[in-house]
Amino acid sequence: MRLFNTLSRSKEKFTLSDKDWVGFYVCGPTVYDYIHIGNARVFVVFDSLRRFLREVGYKVVFVQNFTDVDDKIINKANQLKVSFMEVADRFINEYWKDADALGIQRGDYHPRATEHIDEIINLIRILEEKGFTYLVEGDVLFDVSRFPEYGKLSGKKLDELIEGARVEARYRKRNPADFVLWKAAKPGEPFWESPWGRGRPGWHIECSAMSMKYLGPTLDIHAGGADLVFPHHENEIAQSEAATGKPFARYFLHNGYLTIGSQKMSKSLGNIIKVRDLLKVHSPQVLRIALFGAHYRSPLSMDDTTLDNARGFLNRIKNFLRNFFFIKRNEYRITQEENREVLLRVEDFKIRFFNALADDFNTPQALGTIGEFVRFANEYLHPSRKKWDVGVLNSMEAFLQSVDRILGIIPLNLMDEEDREVIELVSKREEARKEKKWQEADAIRAVLKEKGFVLEDTPLGTRWYRVDESAPEEP
């Protein structure tokens, strides 16, 4: 397996360190609002990479934090006239609703900054003792000039750095890139007691303290959005390595920006799309396929074309599944005779799928392999064939199950309300045909057509697929 490491700016072979498990940390949400589809790209992609690692045999400890005290949270609380903790609790609960609906699996740990104040204070004290900090009016700042490797992740040079997004712009800094580890409390703000007086953690220090508590001084994988390379992850490296003297993370992974049309999605442009709004009109599988449609390191445009393509891809999968289960219901045509040639083809699709994901988690290539598999499998499953090998059917189903365990895009349980209604109507139509009630049978066909379904009468019975799904291909 190879992963593109932002730190080395190259693909590297992924190997375990000196332990038998993978420590995987993803920067989680700052909980002051509902998550948007840009947030979801980070969480879906790296959750799925975690699933892939487990699927191929790695033991993974997965940590994703919540930033639950922050200027934005405090401002939101003031707007709503509630406590900052009420805001944080509310939007953590809302995060779980959206994440669960989107099929994002829970991590092994989801630490909150406010529950790790002692660890944060202890880490700052170590930095203070080693001479990496200075005090200004109750604030504790990290002196980046004391860390010679500052800029090694982002490629920025210290003398070229200017104050930017989420780099606290304070005239009292020794260097523009110096950042706050501990903020002195302002009137009306939440605070905790510390050796430097009442205050609260800076944004960067919390991730270092929490990740190292659960995963040790050196993480195997540290992941997040491209916007976190600088300053957040750069600052995490500086403070963590200054404190421990060890590499902070072996592999840094960052996904590309999500755009709406030609514009980067941002609050300032007002083009933020919330996950829950998208889920009102698109299934979770459609959104996940759309997110996997571009390589995770590349920009992704979330527009109608992207979503329509994802919906079409899902419909082809669903059409195949209806075809697959239609064949399995005809047990008398299923044989134990081994079809070695077809089994080898299915195995080849599996190998290609896993190889694509092992190559820096190349989901577009993996989706392409699934599309080819569906076409091949539909040809094999055509009712004109006289019999089907049970081993082939089991191999196909096992492949799809592994795909779903990793990517979460295969609706293996097709018996939703719509399909149950179709099955009932098809059964009534077949009874009418047996009794030669042709008008009744035609009326049922017309009803199903209005619902978007096309029927095909075969020697094995009637199968169906949606008009917007591609029909099974002829052998």
Task: List the keywords.
4-stranded parallel sheet, 475 residues, single chain, alpha/beta, disordered C terminus, 14 helices, 4-stranded antiparallel sheet
Mean pLDDT, to the nearest integer, reads: 91
In whole angstroms, how far apart are the ends? 36 Å
Provide the gyration radius in Å: 27 Å
Low-pLDDT segments, ≥5 res: 162-170, 469-475
Shape call: elongated
Q: Assign a percent range to the helix content.
A: 40-55%
State which percent range the strand residues make up. 15-25%
Q: Could you give a short account of the major beta sheet?
A: 4 strands, parallel
How many helices? The count is 14
Q: Give the tally of β-strands.
A: 17
Strand order of the largest sheet: 4-3-9-10
The chain-level structural class is alpha/beta
Characterise the protein shown here:
By secondary structure, the protein is α/β, with parallel strands linked by helices. It contains 14 helices and 17 strands. The protein has helices at 37-55, 71-80, 84-102, 117-129, 203-215, 229-244, 275-278, 284-292, 304-329, 340-358, 363-380, 390-407, 417-434, 438-450, and strands at 2-5, 10-13, 22-26, 60-64, 133-136, 139-142, 179-184, 199-201, 219-225, 249-255, 258-260, 263-264, 300-301, 334-335, 388-389, 453-458, 461-466. It has a four-stranded parallel beta sheet. A four-stranded antiparallel beta sheet has the order 5-6-7-8. A three-stranded mixed beta sheet has the order 12-11-13, covered by helices on one side. Strand 11 and strand 12 (263-264) form a beta hairpin. Helix 4 packs across helix 5, helix 10 (340-358) runs antiparallel to helix 11 and helix 13 (417-434) packs antiparallel against helix 14 (438-450). The longest helix is centred in the middle third of the chain and has 26 residues, at 304-329. The protein starts with a strand and ends in a 9-residue tail after the last strand. Residues 162-170 and 469-475 have low confidence and may be disordered.
